[in-house]
Amino acid sequence: MINTLTDKRVSEILDILHEKATADSIQRRIAKNTPGFERSWDTAYMAVNPEEGYLLNFLATVSEAKNIVEFGCSFGISTIYLAAAAKNNGGAVVSTDIEPTKVAGARKNLEDVGLAEYVTILQGDATQTLASLKGPVDFLFLDGAKELYLPVFNLLRPKLIKGSVIFADNADKPDTQPFVEHILGLKDEFTTAHIFEKRAFIAYLK
Ligand SMILES: C[S@@+](CC[C@H](N)C(=O)[O-])C[C@H]1O[C@@H](n2cnc3c(N)ncnc32)[C@H](O)[C@@H]1O
């Protein structure tokens, strides 16, 4: 089986992007304590770390996902891991983000790693951009606004097929609990697992 992540161009650019994301997060933590600080998310990476990226790629690859959907691409770091799996599987990714600057950045980063042809990014509010998405969906990564995990999941539920994987980041946050509790309540439909100190939540549609 090919592993696109080991491609030199992909791995080198991912290393650079992870470094930028880490620097951005450190800078924001410092700025938070300075007088007059105003929180702005329009340029914040808030990206998955490499371990989570590899897990995303691994799950999408072994589940042979071909119709991958991502809620919240930011600058496209997680999207690269998903696109690499889509390429391995002969599939594609549809992602969405509300911030135009980030969508432009993600598109450029995907071009740079040579995976743009496997990804369509819809700019706008996910509850609208994903509403007219054609199914089926067999891999769903939730990493946008936490309070929208459940509405976005409900929107896509009719399109999720047997064997689908649902991966939610920040599953330990208060705003994601309605989503987590909803899935935990669907025991007959989903096998679930909490990992990384409950941060990542994985559900498998039986
Ligand atoms: C945690 S970041 C995503 C990080 C990205 N998955 C990665 O690992 O590189 C969350 C993203 O969700 C986007 N977002 C927030 N609310 C949204 C909405 N209603 N619709 C689409 N995107 C949204 C934000 O602009 C932000 O870029």
TrEMBL record:
GO terms for biological process: methylation. Keywords: Methyltransferase, S-adenosyl-L-methionine, Transferase. One of its GO terms (molecular function) is O-methyltransferase activity. SUPFAM superfamilies: S-adenosyl-L-methionine-dependent methyltransferases (SSF53335). Pfam families: Methyltransf_24. InterPro entries: SAM-dependent_MTases_sf (IPR029063), SAM_O-MeTrfase (IPR002935). PANTHER family: PUTATIVE (AFU_ORTHOLOGUE AFUA_6G01830)-RELATED (PTHR43167:SF1). This is Methyltransferase domain-containing protein. The lineage of its organism: Bacteria, Pseudomonadati, Bacteroidota, Sphingobacteriia, Sphingobacteriales.
